[in-house]
Amino acid sequence: MQVLVLGGTGWIGRPTAERLAATPDVSQITIASRNGAEAQKVASTIGSKAVSAEIDVHDHDHLVSLASKHGLVVNAAGPDYKVAYPVARAAVAAGAHCVDISADPVAVERILALDSGARASEVAVITGIGHAPGISNLMMLHAARQLDAVEEVHFDVNLRVADFLHEDPARMAAEFRRAGRVSASWETLMKWVAGPVRTLRDGRLVEVDPSHEAVATRPPVGGPLTLYPLATTEPITMPRHLPGVMSLSFRMSWFPPQINEMYLELGRRIRDDGMDPAEATIALIERIAADPARWLTPPPGGNAEFLNWATAIGWKDGRRVACTCWPVGNWMSTVAALTVAAREVTRRGFRRKGVFPPEAAFEPEPFLAEVAAQAGGVPPDANPLALSMTALA
Predict the structure, then answer these.
(1) pLDDT of residue 312
(2) CATH architecture assigned to 2-127
């Protein structure tokens, strides 16, 4: 199968393209980017299977023409709230399968509405298959399936700001200003806190202000955390596939935790004052650069680890319980999840047609085991997830 990787020069797209090029069922891989010269450079490093293309994903006719020459479109371009829907729409029009890492709820709702068109074109669109959403959805589904009946499901993250500061913060902010844009990952994170933040409560989607919805909890590893709900896609898609669930949310904290103060403030400025998410990103990084002692000094006993865990609350054998699962080892990877999803299409063919969020597309245990093997974070044949069951009053 011929595969088109949009955003193929980026930090998600490039390693995904390299892994897919090593897949026997991929006959050719096209590295596509707004920067044609950079796309050609990346293609030359991948090898004989790779070619390059220059593309603006908002040029619908050009994108349809390019996608029609491929069996699969892998969308790693960003920011997803701007590009995920145009890419999915073009793939459906071109008769090409599509997998993406969209984490924007508005974009995903628009993509889900393409379902009848995808079925008519006999293609599959698998949307939101990265770390979060993606692995998050499947961990939540896995936890929920351990129960006889489920009432609540939550996915929680402790995110290290150091993992997003790939160089000196002052230099990073200056480079973003010079380029006139920021990385798609940062822009997505800022959109998450700006909202509108929708969460499932009492069986209904409601909008909340994350500043007023702090939740104190204790992760399965480490000390207590304060978490805040964010505008991700899991509350939009998962209730459709978890009958009876009344509460569902995605919640996050930064490490060091004082970053949350600035993050929430900038989210309010985006929402209430119309601040651009890219400008908010630069402001956050510039503040860190101006006073690293304040923003980067961890508190005593803080959770310095990158933590992810899913919790389902409900009933098991007549008792009310909480089931929690979390990764064993360091294998949480958007690249690995996107690669495995793409390989499902190229290797065996994804026989169902239509638009699917992760929880409707894949079985949690085999998919997550393959992601863990792809990421190399656990030994072969080891269970990538730990599981605990706690009785509740």
Answers:
(1) 98
(2) 3-Layer(aba) Sandwich (3.40)
